[in-house]
Amino acid sequence: MNVFKFGGASINSIERIENVGKIIKSFGSEKILIIISAMGKTTNALEKVVDAFFAGNQKEALDLFEAIKNEHNYVLQQLIKKESSSLKDFYTEIEWLLHDKPVRAYDYYYDQIVCCGELLSTALVSAYFNEIEITNNWVDVRDILRTDNNFRDAIVDWDFTKTKITETIVPLFEKTNLVLTQGFIGATDENESTTLGREGSDYSAAIFANMLNAKSLTIWKDVEGVMNADPKEFADAQIINYLSYNEVIEMAYYGAQVIHPKTIKPLQNKQIPLYVKCFLNKDLPGTTIDNKVAHNLPPIIVVKQQQVLLQLSSKDFSFVGEAYVSKLYELFAALKIKPNLTQNGAISILCCLDDKPDKIEKLALSAAEYFDVLVEKNLTLLTIRYYSKEKFDELTKDKKILLTQQTTETIQALLH
Ligand code: ASP
Ligand code: MG
Predict the structure, then answer these.
(1) Which of 67, 161, 187, 275 could cross-link 218 (Cys pair, CB 3.0–4.6 Å)?
(2) How far, in Å, CA of 350 to CA of 348, rounded?
(3) Residues of the chain where predicted confidence (pLDDT) is lower than 70
(4) Residue 212: inside a domain, yes or no?
(5) Is 35 in the pocket of ligand 1 (CB under 6 A)?
(6) Domain end call among 198, 221, 244
């Protein structure tokens, strides 16, 4: 058995959905669990629905949702001749909610509304597969993947989910070759929908691969494979054909937009190889990620924009020892902030963070109880793994370097 994950870009047009059908047909009677994201930019569009609803703009929320419905209905009509009602129940679920007034927290509504992106996309693709005689079983993953109620960043209940997969998905594969379900979403023990964090469907796919003891996980993308830099920014970006789990975890940690950072652990734990392949040309080799150490890697470049530097200094010239550092990390945990880089000095701590304005403001305010706080915005964090001095100089030329940090493998510079 294998697990495939198709991202939103792979189904964002009629041709691309047809292409997914062709890819699946080319695998004949192999058993495949297929995880699909929301179509195109649907998740972003649904976020706008949530914002409007939560701000009390019911009409705007319903209009925005209507546009999402139209888009899905159009695609469905193009792909399916028969009259199909497969999406209506999901629409109704959301519209009911939108007719209410918000009384619970934002994150709760976010998950109840945003989850419909993957329900719609998978129902649509499943109906299309039936149309072209690819027999498949559609599963609502909310009956399988159990999480806590930490909405928008829910933690998976590993034991419950494993039992459900063993009881329901494994027997399903005795009767069928293809099971189609959603990434990114789950549900609590009270049947409330939850999400695992943006781009979380890679992680869902890895969870299924782990629990089904899959032979491999393939993530189908619109690029040839994992590149050493963002090809939109670096014309000489090159594909890397082999990477280790370790390397990918590091790349994701430093902010490379390759694969959701949580994806690797479930695969590594069971030594399941991960293939990153191009859905536009399935015969390209792509990237293989497994336990083997890759040699002669090119410099791997990650650029994170919109960075903030927080300089926290002790108020009375005392050393910033463990007590201060742990206070700061308590604040990070409370605000769910992950610093991208920190550097400690005698009487100050520097930290570089993503610029999420409300979080940064809260952090700066809370930290002001213990420190003098300075905030500098609009910075860029450059990370190079397997760097050379020449590469570093080339990429930092004409830029003001605010701080650097380096190990033998990795160099990071915060740039103005
Ligand atoms: N649809 C979700 C998102 O855009 C999850 C995913 O695609 O992985 O973040
Ligand atoms: Mg995606």
Answers:
(1) 275
(2) 7
(3) 83-84
(4) yes
(5) no
(6) 221
Query: Which residues neighbour 300 within 8 Å (Cβ) at sequence distance 6 or greater?
Result: 228, 229, 240, 247, 251, 256, 384, 385, 386
Residue 239 maps to a domain: no
Query: Considering its fold, how many domains does the chain have in total?
Result: 2
| Tens digit of each residue's pLDDT (9 = 90 or more) over 242-286 | 999 999 999 988 888 888 889 999 999 999 999 999 999 999 999
199 lines ligand 1 (CB under 6 A): yes
Distance 270 CA to ligand 1 centre (A): 25
DSSP state of 222: S
What is the C-alpha separation between 410 and 331, in angstroms, rounded? 27
Q: Which atom of ligand 1 is nearest to the CA of 118?
A: 1
Return the pLDDT at 86: 80
Looking at the structure, tell me whether residues 81 and 186 fall in a common domain: yes
Residues of the domain holding 24: 2-221
* pTM for the whole structure: 0.91
Task: Check whether residue 210 and residue 305 sit in a common domain.
Answer: no
Q: What's the 69 CA to ligand 1 centre distance in angstroms?
A: 18
Mutate to test the pocket of ligand 1, among 181, 198, 222, 257 (most ligand atoms within 8 A of CB): 198
* Ramachandran region, residue 317 (left: φ > 0; alpha: ψ -120 to 50; beta: rest): left
For ligand 1, whether the C-beta of 121 sits within 6 Å is no
Asked whether 40 lines ligand 1 (CB < 6 A), one says: no
193 CA to centre of own chain: 17
Q: Is 203 in the pocket of ligand 1 (CB under 6 A)?
A: no
Question: How many Å lie between the centroid of ligand 2 and the Cα of residue 257?
Answer: 10
Residue of 37, 115, 217, 259 to mutate, ligand 1, most atoms within 8 A of C-beta: 37
For the segment 123-174, what is each residue's pLDDT rounded down to a tens digit? 999 999 999 999 999 999 999 999 999 999 999 999 999 999 999 999 999 9
Going by alpha carbons, the residue nearest to atom 2 of ligand 1 is 199
Residue 204 Cβ inside 6 Å of ligand 1? The answer reads no
User: What CATH number has the domain bearing residue 210?
Assistant: 3.40.1160.10
For residue 236, tell me if it sits in a domain.
no
Angle at 249 between CA 392 and CA 157, to 5 degrees: 155
Residue 282 lies inside a defined structural domain of this protein: no
Same domain (yes/no): 29, 169: yes
Of 175, 200, 221, the position where a domain reaches its end is 221
Mark whether 310 and 195 lie in a shared domain: no
